[in-house]
Design brief:
Number of strands: 2
Radius of gyration: 17 Å
Strand order of the largest sheet: 1-2
Helix content: 40-55%
Largest sheet: 2 strands, parallel
Distance between the termini: 33 Å
CATH architecture: 3-Layer(aba) Sandwich
Shape: flat
Mean pLDDT: 92
Structural class: mainly alpha
Order of helices and strands: EHHHHEHHH
CATH superfamily: HUPs
Number of helices: 7
Number of domains: 1
């Protein structure tokens, strides 16, 4: 089984998210950044995604074995995804219909 971890969505900067940072002004700069590009509020070497994923990712084997985590920013870099995007662009009139 696969689990999609949305890492390319924009960081919204909701009040609770902003308040996780000690520097509110700096935190506001991250609004609309991809989640994978936002640093952890506690460790600039770690991402927002990795920091908050720990609570779910570490105990994951207790809930199911063989679960493959698919991070969207990695998926979008794969050749097969590029091929799908190119095909959709080439067939945009049919897709819109």
């Amino acid at each position: 089984p696969n689990l999609i971890l949305y890492t390319s969505d924009p960081w919204k900067g909701k009040p609770a998210q902003l308040n996780a940072f000690s520097d509110l002004k700096k935190a506001k700069e991250y609004v609309n950044w991809r989640l994978i590009d936002v640093p952890s509020p506690n460790n600039q070497k770690e991402t927002w995604v990795d920091y908050y994923w720990r609570d779910f990712g570490v105990p994951m084997p207790k809930f199911g074995r063989g679960i493959q985590i698919i991070r969207t920013h990695e998926l979008y870099q794969q050749e097969r995804m590029r091929n799908v995007v190119i095909e959709l662009i080439n067939k945009k009139d049919k897709v819109r219909a």
